[in-house]
Fold each of these.
Amino acid sequence: MIDITDTFDTSDTSDTSGTSDTSDTSDTSYPNPVSLFRFLIRRLLLTIPILFGITLLSFVIARAVPSDPIVANLGQRAMSDPKIVAAFRAEWGLDKPPHEQYLTYIGNLLQGNLGKSIKSRRPVIEDLKAFLPATIELAASSILVGILMGVTLGVISAVNRNRWVDHIARFISLIGVSLPVFWLALVLLFVFYSRLGWVAGPGRLDPGMIAPPRLTGLMTIDATLAGQWSTLGNALSHLILPSITLGVFTAGLITRVTRSAMLEVLGNDYIRTARAKGLHERMVILKHAFRNALVPVVTVIGFSFANLLAGTVLTEKIFSWPGIGSYAFQASTTLDFQAIMGVSLLIAVIFIATNLVVDLLYFVLDPRMRKT
Amino acid sequence: MRIQKLSMLAVCTALVLAACAAPPATAPTSAPAAPAATTAPEAAATEAPAEAATEAPATDATTAPAAGAASTIVIAKAEDTVSLDPGRAFEFVPGIVNKANYQTLVTFPPENASEIKPLLAEKWEISADSKVYTFTLVTTAKFSDGTPLTAKDVVFSWNRLKNIKGNPSSLSGNIASVAAPDDATVILTLINADPSTLALLVNNAFSVVNSEAVKKQGGTDAADADTTDKAEQWLNGHSEGSGPYILEKWEPKVETILVRNPNYWGTPAPTERIVIRNVEQVATQKLQLEAGEVDVAMDLTADQVPSLKSNPAVSVYEATGNVIFFAYMNADKTIGGPVSDPKVQQAIRLAIDYEGIKALVGGKAATPASVIPIGFFGAYGEDKALKRDVEGAKKLLAEAGFEKGFEVDLSYPDFDNSGFSFSTGAQKIQADLAEVGITANLKGSEVGVWLEAYRQGQLPFSLSLWGPDFSDPGNYLEFMPEKKVGLRANWKNDNSSKDVQDLRDKALVETNPDERAKLFGQIQDYFQQNGPWVPFVQSGVQVGLSAGLKGFVYNSQWNVDVALLSK
Amino acid sequence: MQWPTCPFVNNSLPSTRTITRFLRRNPLATIGLIIFAAWVVISVAAPALTRYEPKKQQIAKRLQPPSAEFLFGSDQLGRDVQTRVFYSGRTSLPAGIVVVVVAALIGSAIGAVAGFVGGWLDDVTMRVTEVFLAFPTIILSMTIAAALGPNLSNAVIAMVVVWWPNYTRMVRAQVMQVKTREFVEAARALGAPEWRVLLRNVIPNCIAPVIVLATADLGTAILVFAGLSFLGLGPDPSVPEWGRMIADGIQFFDQWWMALFPGLAIFMVAMAFNFIGDGIRDALDPRLRGN
């Protein structure tokens, strides 16, 4: 939910890696493939303390609260039976001192065991496997909406700088980042599902629809693999409103970054040269300018994707979307700390992995990097 | 003879065993808004099915049960399932699911809890001291895998319930032992005599599971079953019961799908598949019902009903529920401060705008005369409910020395139950109290957080709810000094009157119906003038049904028996 | 690829003349300022602009559609939605501003010290910051708000806890750059104590970017605050607050006015801040200059 472009404009990406640099404003030199590889390895190693920090932080918050997970998860009647309460405490290790609980958790974690959710009574890893695909599907289609709208608006806006087209494009992108998602979701549902009936409503499929056999967990792909075309159509229809809801916000960010990246590139000498050579303007913009502006655009897309995974809480709640956003909300409010830690770790891992992928993409996209 | 007498008793006490008391968002607790025993059956009979029958083509009505080979009925309900293991499940949706997948020895009629009916047990005898129950099982019953159901399955199921120490295990707390002298006989021995035992056995927790199949999946009924039983995960994906349906799949937070049990030993259910969809927003449930995407919308609020009534494709089932919403004031002066003063307590009872709250909740909501729901044995009707008296309240406050009022924190769990929104209700009460000069600061919190403070009796002034464990006024003796709910308000022997303690002690042991009625009358009279309780509304139940749907009957125990549904 | 640490050519605060020129060149920012000013007026003058008390309930007139009596309709307790939307600015605007200001102060202070002192202190600070940045913000703030117990100040605290690291990182980088400048070296050479150098010479040269980031953050802060409140983690429900009003409106889909108007209000305020922030960013971005 934090406006990530601010993070962008004011800090360098390598900062997360822990390389303390003095960050001056000029371009630094780029590593060659071997040093890039080493750089990535080092960054991977440096993520380990971050992941531990995340488990510690969530553990501290979840355990320092004035509420007992026992009462949140046992009924009133069961709660007044000391035998049941004792069995519950023993089952979840709540009868041990906190530091022991944390060490046990870390011990299990190192063996790939995220523990069991108090609320769902199932292994957290199972819950995450069950809920993550729905969120990935939603985040992926939202990012698609965001890219289509954002890049188009950004390029148009930059090419027509300070003309009315630019103002309108900027206006639209600013509207995108100003809409409260939970409200936009309601308005879209009200108009396009309830009143007009053009698209499907909440959920991933119509209630009577039979879901395809679960292979990937992504409804559209599973339906395609199973050849259930009507299910595929229904799943796509269900994706439209939530993707637009989330995509509009992302589009706002992408427009902003695309525009400024394009403006920067368009001011460069080689663009002037290309123009001077008499190349067609469209050619100049698409082939030369946009290509070179892609690096920051890819960055914002990567960040948006990672952010979307965590930012779907409100949207999933309104669209009854069975994803990790809903799961995280339930975990947070019932203080189910194993689940909170599990879902936070997962999102942090995806966040860090996305950063790495973005770094790798720089290498592919930026011709200057390949030359060195 | 004995059986008949018992069912008579059951009629009197109208034993409805419903989950438990208090907040359901996290736990099963509050009983489903169940029809109050007197009004509900009529409502069920006259409203929904009648309307459905007139709407549906005549041919449909005759062919429905036999046909419907690939028929599907979709039910929308907010999913609260934690477990589908009958020994661990304690929520509303599992109540519906396990009613369809499993069976108990005895049951209630479809529409209420007026009598105990045989199911897996064809007859039973009760010893003279009421501590030993001997059940004779039907011999034709078999599980969904075709194996016959015998007494050893009952013993295994009940011992497992007791020993795995899951949430519903407390229901089995009075069981001393269960034995199976032969395949068709089950002997249940109790620790203390309890007239509500048969009603208790109707609860899904006492479902009979296929012991061989469950053992194969790591299940055990041994004394250490709380650590050694591993069958829960299996039972969350597969049912091992003898009911008309089997569990096809449960996808948490998405849907639960039931299909007809091909090996069912009774009359097959009319509908092939039942889909229970998790739809958390009530607004969505209504939209999906209107769009024809679902056949039943379980959680509607009264405010949604008027616009549905004009829709010919939809009908609405309405009844008065059995959940009582109340405010309570801490009797301990160090915690309650001004609200521990009996005069202030009575002033608050007079300050509440009961009519306004009833209008707010809407539908068939009622104002109860005390904590005992209207419709229960011995309960006063709405005619005896307290009326608002602002001047009287102000006078009492002045007598207590609070002419200028005072400030107090009003706590509440921030969730909705049975169509009642605690936050809306708290704001209404805040406004009512402001009119007599009391400034209530709203302190809403997440249910679990609230429950912790509630349990420890730390809240000075709070809203709460109570759904009955069973439909007998005896359940409401928990509100007496030193009893479970009484202690939440720190209402104890040393700060309550001798009168109310005497009433409590007599009511706990009295078995004569006339004497009981008299005693509960005195308790209700007492509660209208004294004590820490301000019961302010008994909410309604609204279920939306598609016009073509037949067979819907609301039952407070299991909400709906899906094996009766067809379209 | 490195992003510039600070997008500003010079770090001093702009003069009044620069501001007027900026506004003339940025019609959107001007519109933003006007909308923001309008909401400040609406919030302050709410009693004069509305006909009811924000908590005044009329059960007999609940859920009424917009009419001459209730311009924006009435809610589930028969309260006037317009009144509550107008009064809500008194809660949401200060909440958003307080979050950003406090987070900016705390974050900047930590960042300035870390960047200036360097060494292990800097390392530790940065590791902690990274943990907070990698932690999914919405989950962190939901957990904190739920754990502390929902009310206005806890929502603000939860937001500050997740908000400060951005400022820490920015100010740290800024300080590291400024501290190598000649005038800082000169101050040191003159024998000024370290803390004095930090306070007198370094920090004043890092303030402008903080202010710009804070301005751009205000819109987001308003949205996040409304989101927490929407989830039931904000002020108590009798206090008029946009997010909570929308949450109530969800239950009443047929009464569209209950959610529509508070949503429009959040949207307008967030948009106003984003217009202003975008204008400033655009005007000061060195990459976009001289074109």
Amino acid sequence: MSITGCRNDALVKLLNGIGYQPVILPRTGVVPPELYVYDNDSLVRRGSLAEYLPKDMVIPPPQQGRLSSIEHHETSKKSLGVAASFLGDALKCIGITSAPKLDLSFTIGHDITFKFDDVTYQAIDPAKIDHMLGKLITGAIAPEVIANGYLHIAYEYAFAGSLSMKVARDADSSWKATAIQIATYIDLGIQGKVTVASEDTIAFSAASGEIAAFAFKVGRLERRGSKWFFFPEEEAGEGFLADEAAPQPYLLERGVVMQVKEQ
Amino acid sequence: MLAEVKLKKVQREYPLGSSGDRVTALFAQLVPLENPKLEARRLTGSLVAGEVNWNAPNAKTFHCLDDSHAIFVFSKLIDFYQIAAKILFGGANIFGDHLPVRGPDSTSDTVGKLEALFRCWTPKGLADDLPSQISLGPLSPEAGALATFESDSSLLFLISHELGHVFYYRPPTEDDGKNDPVLTKEQELQSDVTGMQSLIQSAQSPADARMRIAGVWAAMRVLAVFGALGHEFAGDHPPPLARLQVLQDHTLMFCKTERDFWSLTPVAYTVDQKLEAAGLRAVGNMNPPARTADRMFSALSAVIENVAKDREPLSQVLAVMNYDFVHAPRPNLEQLALIAARMFPPTLTQTEAPDQDALWAKKAEVFRSLKDQWPQPMAKMFGDAYASLYHPGGES
């Protein structure tokens, strides 16, 4: 459900700190708000919230803009083995779901970091979701999914236009990324392109130009009696002492990147 | 059940230290739970407890939609209680099972170290490096065991209180809107009292009961000091000092006799007074803690008991008490005199505990033997108190 090599990664922590759950989606073209089922074991995208509302109900268009707080922030340094696995997953985050060849052995002996570039967001205000829930039609969703609180709504997505891979050259400043090396070791097929951005940085982008989401903000849905309630913040719990801490954004699980399945 | 899943998830998110989950082991000490409904929940897995590596000085209960419940006790508060207990039992005059346990530290060292520990509180929680900020000397095995028992008692009290959150829980309805139902102030206090009562009742010996009570009072006093340092407590919880007072009042109610109360609380009073002294210093107040009548009588009773058991010379009573007798406020001294007159009567009544009868008769004898050596005005107050209780209208 969560991918390996990322637990408590610096970039994952940064995203969590501003309320984002990093995810790997199997598709592009997602637009908030969208319905998910998360049962603590698997995360399944059920589709746009609009599909669970009356046809005549209008969902306001999401706000969009740049996410400068995420740009320029790198992942933790990764060794070759972890980086190779991470790269495959990270490419999915920019819409490259399969690559014929991803061989990073030309970076052997060097640590590697990654960062997302051209980061943007699309968001719908959680308060607006509250107003839609009165007409929610859960249809074929299993009653136990509802009763156990597994229903979630993603109300904001973060998208990346490209992915950069930087090779640390601390011990070997003579190492340089070259176009020939890259052409020999990496082939993204028709889905993407790879370029040398600088002597130590390689950039990956989707060929189609269709950007993919790599993180979302999500809240949980709960039915109390006949009414639905949306909780975009962590539950506070009942304390031995009263808790004055500011409510934190809700996350499915801190420190991990979640793999999303499509229904 | 969802509670177990939630606990495991949070423990993945905030990995525990090298000690592992200390709460699971403590929770096992409460098993089987006294309340049958709670025990049934535990047996079916709908009630779990565990340690969570958070810095806030708190414990929390989370209620899940499948009617399962997870109690979290936060790591830094566990560390705090454990270090505080080691400091307290590294000091002198904590009484063990048979003999006074004397640590290497003086009273001022003890209070100074506790003050340093309290300074590890920050508005964002307790500092990450609690242990490294305090220099802890090695404890004797007996003192170490007592320290562990006392801090375990603090933590068991927290868990027991949280069980009240499960017991009183009612699921939210649509009328609650987005708000989750919380305990009333009365239910919060009742959870404290019930938690303490079950801990005292589960004690295997009077020595255990002494440490249980000390741990419960210490748990609340520590939180009261955090409040003085700036920790904010929201309106739906009674403030820790009020909760401590309720606990102290109920300790007396849980004892069969007042004599039992004074026999079971000397460690609690000593610990409470040292923690308060350290807390005052931590907020920049160099005054000593209040010399209340209860605290003074507890110290008097303890030192007299040592003399009665030939552990201390008679002069030690005067050495321990005379400073308080000179410096305490007069109303507190008058109240102390009345307690002493009540507890050390001229003629002791027989009870179902002949050993205790004999001990308290000896203590009364020691007390009265000092009649002419108390400083004034204390000597007169003792005389007046005896007169008012045993010769009303007559001469003292």
Amino acid sequence: MKRTHPIIASLALLTMGFLYLPLLGVAVFSVNSARRGLVWKGFTLDWYIKLFSNEWILEAAWNTFLLAVTSTLVATVLGTVLAIGMDRFPWTRRINNILDIILHIPVVIPDIILAAALVVAFGLLRVLSAMFEPGLLNMIIGHITFQIAFVALVVRSRLVAIGSEIEEAARDLFAGNWYLMRRIMLPLLMPGIVAGGMLAFTLSLDDFVISFFTAGPESQTLPLYIFAAVRRGVTPQIHALSTLIMIITVVLVIGTERFTRKG
Amino acid sequence: MTRRLLIWYGELTTRQNLLKRGLYFLSSGMLWLMVFLVLPGLVLVVVSFATRGAYGQLEWDFTIENYKRLMGFSLFGWTSDYLVILWRSVVVAFFTTLVSIVLSYPLCFFIAGREERSRYMWLTLVIIPFWTNMVIRTYAWFLILAPELPFAKLAAAMGFIPHGAPLYPNAFAVYIGMVSMFLPFVTLPLYASVEKLDWSLVEAAQDLYASRVRVFTQAILPQTMPGLSVGIILTFVPAMGMFVVPDLLGGAKYMLVGNLIQQQFGASRDWPFGAAISMGLMILTMVSLQIYRRKSKEIEHI
């Protein structure tokens, strides 16, 4: 391995500092007892304790969680089945190309366009049913739509990696369709499915744009809450909430890393 | 189609049989994507030619009025307002991508030069901001750019901002926010290529007295092109549509196309115009990527 030039190393460290400086700032001022301003007035955990008595935040946290869990479950099932359907059947090249393009749309267009399209579509569907009023259901549908693509892409790469030998061996030993699916494919695919699901879950927690466009007055999520709050003025409580979210992110990232490295 | 038998993944079957089963597998996911992705996309195209009613409702008189308005034609003659915002979005996305690339190369070389164990730690350190919520990462700059800190004081001393004012909202803050937002999007895919880099080619170039610039453009750049391309697409496309960063750090004076779209679907409630702007954004993104694809082929064939 080449030794790193000191100039390159210091540039790299500066860049890391640039990435982390603002985040550290948030963490530091979440335990500062000063109500306003950038002066250090002593350590406190008050802002964290107050979070748990703020009904708005608790409700937003619950909505965020409900949204992420529901959409991830649906998207993981749909995405996995879709990936198998795309990879394991002799489609002609043209059909494969079309399926591929559709699958890549949510990955390669700016998310604000998907959000705009969903707003308009829900607006028209509202004529048919009041179900499509802005709110949690619309947000779940929006999240599933972009999650499916990511799950399917991850699972499909796992399908390619598994190859065909094991399935051929199973068929040679007279495994039926169901047996093959349940006892061979699913266990082999599991690491891919879990990785896809975790990706979908993080994408949902992380999403702001789709939620912002499809949310109703009753369906605040934490990112939406923070956005609205910082436009009114930043408070230590927002720092505390953001720090908690960052800690959860770190745990999720390290957990996923551990899992995918083993899988 | 013939009823010929074939062997597919060890199963003796016919093509029809397989395709029928395959259709079952595809149906649920594809139906979902059709109803909630493809159809809404088409509806968006149609609505971009519709008219806004007096109360913000849709009226189906088809015109190209929305696109003319985007091009700057209005009742009061021609203004460049919207075109300026569109052009600014392209420029901001371009420079965000460029600066992210420039900062990512040293970072990738640095990480690739660590020992195996600490490499994972450094990579994880890049991945964490990648997954941290973008609203948090954007507003976090409020603290760093606050008037009490040396950055704002320095800018004030040089006369860029009044004394005691924060270093936002302005164009500079938008760039800072955008680069810190998208930097990991370039670093992570680029790292995959840098890790596989064949250093013997770089050394060969150095042995043949190539200048530093030529070593980079002819030995390093072509080898890292695959990862770099992924990074560029992952950065440029969402940067074009970004509205959180300009909203919080740019204010009304430094709007990007994302803010313009959000306004139409929010306060102004002008869906047809919002749809037309979305189409404009879509076309700009596609054209830029096409130009990039041409250019990158040239580089790979050096």
Amino acid sequence: MPLVVLGLSHHSSPVTVRERFAFEEARVPAALQSLRDSGGADEAVILSTCNRVEIYAFTQREPPAAFAALREFLVTCHDFRDPLRDEIYTLSEPQSVHHLFKVACGLDSMVLGETEILGQLKKAYDLALQNGHTGSRLNKAFQRAFNVAKHIRTETNIQRGSVSVGSVAVELAEKIFSRLGDRGVMVIGAGDTSEKTARALLSRGARNILVTNRSQDKAIALAQELGGRAVPFEDWAGEFESIDIIISSTSARDYILDRARLGPLMKLRRNRPLLLIDIAVPRDIEPEVNFLENVYLYNIDDLQAIADDYLKQRKEEVARCEQIIREKAEALLAHAGGRAPSGSVRPAFGHE
Amino acid sequence: MSYLLLLLGFGFHTAAMFLRGFRLDRCPVTNLYEATTFAMWTIVAVYLIVGLWARLRFLGAFASPVLFAIGVFALMPNLDALHGKRPELPAAWTSVHAALMSLSYGAFGLSAVAALMYLTQERNLKFHKLRAVFTLMPPIQRLETAAGRLLASGFILLTLGLLSGVVDLTHINNPHSYRGDPKIVWSIGVWLLYLGLIIMRWRFAQGGRRFALSAIGSFVFVLLTFWGTNVLSPLHNP
């Protein structure tokens, strides 16, 4: 009775298909119940995120029969009647165990090495556990997956560094300021990337956020979303004294901040460090301001270059991670009491 | 781990200094070798105290090589000269004076270490250089604060040390004959130098690079001239 996985992810299907298979969290316990009632699985966990919908299950059936039952369940459950080609993949041991470990470590994620998936996997497992849909075998497999994820995080560099523009900006801010909680952040121009960057700063403790935009309505709307305050575009320099981080993304043709203007403003701030994130194209901030003391200017290319560099480092770590995963998966499978001869159903780990 | 190793080394160092101190019946700061090793001891002592806060433990990474270099210097020949006849000064006040002065140099030394780390990190941030140490080092604002506070602590210790030296001198006959002693003049110069730095930092908000460079420059000046003035001073090197 092996561990089997059936599902679809960003590797196999577009979002237009994935969204139709997604499970709302509230529906998951009932879905798991009907899956078990139909005999499709003895133990099961459903993982549903924006990038994947997967069923992890232990079943009495042979893998081909188990996959057919799980597929039927998934399609019926969502009333999906369009033709499917390779969107849904199936995995049996040992690949299913490898896959579970890879997902837990973020190796199968769209952003390589990201950690959000581990939280989502834990949540999916807890939901199944609390509703009594897991047993000793799935419990062991998932607990082991969480341990492997922890091991990989501490032993490799797969999660080191930031790989998105927003998180690079946050990392830079954390390398300059002791605490983000008491730093003033100003968003100039209400663009998508600047909003994401501001949100990333908020998630790391920034509190005092000011938003300014040529269209005051947009500024007010974004300020409300971010829990900050809108400032008229003509007056933004007046607030400069309390500002430590500026995220600029206006569509202005000329620089809105240049060296001649910033020099006196820095004196007002008693030369406290200032982080300038210029994500506008054409640029909003004159590059020469970086020559001023205590001013740190990064444009979109600088941030992207750092993110790319980190991503390169992460990719170099993949082989190491996969080696660790292979070893851990083999250890788990060996613990199950050895493999059965080929042709028969493999024994699952966890037989007591 | 490095903190524990330093703690162990500090333990041995303390034991050795106590043995020497008991033999001399005073704080073992009677010649250049002893003064150098004592300065090392005080840098480690100050580090071990500030290292109690995990946030400041990073200083050890940069302080250890500096300590090693000073240690090598202390082992140079002829520094551990025989103890000559000293002016008749009370041992207790002399020990207090020497200890306070050394502790202040220890704090100045660590302040320079924090300033050096600040400059390294500041350069990385300014020129967008991504290096391994970049991710491990603390934020520059914390480094700057650490450098500033260590420097201020050093200044307070130096002030107390100089005052204890004055008290010490009042115990001998004709203390005015030492008025022009090079070491005394130099120490007052060092005190004024650090006073200038403190005024520059807190009164005129001259933080950042300029302050870090000044903190390092001042400590290098102290290191380079400490020995020279010691040799020239009849009071400190009889």
